[in-house]
Inverse folding.
């Protein structure tokens, strides 16, 4: 079994396509309902239903009960919560955490309107839980703050879960390297799967509206659900300060260059 995951807006769908897999196989139809069933829709809004290892394993066992894990290749950001139990589902699992430059993520997420309906993400840990210090002020913060917080918090969930299992099961890959065809062989070696060569040159983001540093942006009229901001090299000092305050430490840990050098 090979699982590609990340924060969303980080190329996970492209990875799965590159290696002949699916994107979010039965995630909406089965996995999210399973989470709601076991977690009573309260995973990140209270301490009442903690996502324990036992509960994670129960959800994953139910999800994979009719799936041939030997040949399963899939991508979804929801897997971030379950990475530490996947080796118990398949002892040969390969997990790829796809990381994208946090400032490019912010630009992409704002363009998608992710800053608007935060309740939509209550079970995906993309908003603060009630016991988090940012919970009360989150909706009052500016959109860049909220998306930088989402990028950091969700990546940390994935990384913390990966650290609980042997490193032979997982690898962290930067989207920027894959887009430039750097690291394709590394991924092939790790997963044991040959990439589909004619997919390598395809655009990462196959959507109605393209955006990001690597894809020509389709400028459309701003509305209540979409914010268009400049590429990170054209950010104002204030924008950089907001992002660096929230996520600068992880940004540098991943090897990205902060605004102060």
């Amino acid at each position: 079994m090979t699982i590609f995951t990340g924060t969303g807006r980080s190329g996970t769908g492209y990875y799965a396509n590159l290696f002949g897999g699916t994107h979010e196989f039965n995630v909406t139809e089965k996995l999210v309902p399973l989470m709601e069933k076991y977690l009573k829709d309260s995973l990140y809004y209270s301490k009442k239903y903690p996502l324990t290892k036992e509960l994670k394993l129960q959800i994953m066992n139910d999800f994979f009960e009719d799936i041939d894990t030997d040949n399963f290749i899939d991508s979804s950001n929801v897997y971030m919560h379950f990475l530490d139990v996947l080796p118990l589902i398949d002892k040969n699992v390969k997990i790829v955490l796809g990381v994208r430059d946090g400032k490019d993520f912010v630009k992409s997420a704002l363009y998608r309107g992710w800053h608007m309906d935060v309740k939509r993400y209550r079970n995906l840990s993309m908003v603060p839980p009630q016991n988090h210090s940012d919970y009360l002020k989150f909706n009052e913060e500016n959109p860049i703050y909220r998306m930088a917080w989402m990028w950091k918090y969700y990546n940390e969930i994935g990384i913390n879960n990966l650290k609980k299992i042997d490193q032979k099961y997982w690898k962290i890959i930067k989207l920027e390297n894959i887009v430039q065809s750097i690291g394709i062989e590394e991924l092939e070696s790790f997963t044991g799967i040959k990439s589909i060569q004619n997919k390598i040159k395809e655009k990462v983001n196959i959507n109605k509206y393209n955006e990001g540093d690597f894809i020509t942006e389709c400028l459309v009229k701003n509305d209540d659900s979409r914010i268009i901001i400049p590429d990170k090299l054209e950010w104002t000092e204030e924008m950089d300060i907001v992002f660096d305050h929230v996520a600068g430490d992880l940004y540098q840990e991943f090897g990205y260059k902060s605004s102060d050098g």
